[in-house]
Amino acid sequence: MQFDPEEYATPQAFARDPAKVWTWYDMRRQEMAGARPNPAHTALAELEKTGRRVFVVTQNVDDLHEQAGSRDVTHNRGSMWHVRCLRDGAVEENRLVPLTEIPPRCGCGGLFRPAVVWFGETLPRQPLETARRYLLAGEIDVCLVVGTEASFGYIVEWSFHARESGALLVDVNPRATGLSDAVGFHLEGKAGEILPWLLPELS
Fold first, then answer.
1. Do the Cβ atoms of 82 and 91 come closer than 8 Å?
2. Which end of the chain is more exposed for a tag (fewer CB within 10 A), N or C?
3. Which of 76-90, 149-163, 175-189 has the highest mean pLDDT?
């Protein structure tokens, strides 16, 4: 099924046809249930086991960092494994695959929606505040910007803040990004190839 954000990932699409949106998300959840961490996820978790504090901020809505063993993970675009009630705002974990009811409903009778950030929505406040608190602590040795084109303003802002606080800024991406000219190092390649080689050097 081809993805059209106007059909599946906006509040307007959900208001028009919640069953259609949930059918698509149910398919994605089934695919995600079979996904496993790649070497980049594992390398970050292994670095944490050495005693270094590793704070992960991810735009991904899966739980592969947690599966790999990372404990300090902030999802700034939500999680596919959480649902939010449109009536009372309650957020619950839901790992039913496949869903037994489409669209799923809360115990209060309200419709659940995927607890992810859709197009046109703002990022949730709590993960943004968590990331900012960590940055303001000023105890970051290395800031890795991995697998993003750095096209979002907050990514650039956070990266520069870490650099100004004394962190070594490293960009890991198969091609140049919006940060490549401003970082200490731009490492061109796939995260799953570079991080397993790089991170043991930081332990």
1. yes
2. N
3. 76-90
Q: What is the pTM of this model?
A: 0.89
Q: How many CB atoms lie within 10 A of CB 33?
A: 14
Inter-residue contact 112 to 25 (CB < 8 Å): no
The residue among 145, 136, 87, 133 whose CA lies nearest residue 112 is: 87
- Burial, 169: exposed, middle or buried (Cβ in 10 Å; 0-12, 13-18, 19+)? buried
- Cross-strand bridge partners of residue 145: 171
- Distances in Å between the alpha carbon of 117 and those of 9, 40, 70, 100? 8, 24, 22, 23
Give the strand order in the sheet containing 112-116. 91-93, 78-85, 112-116
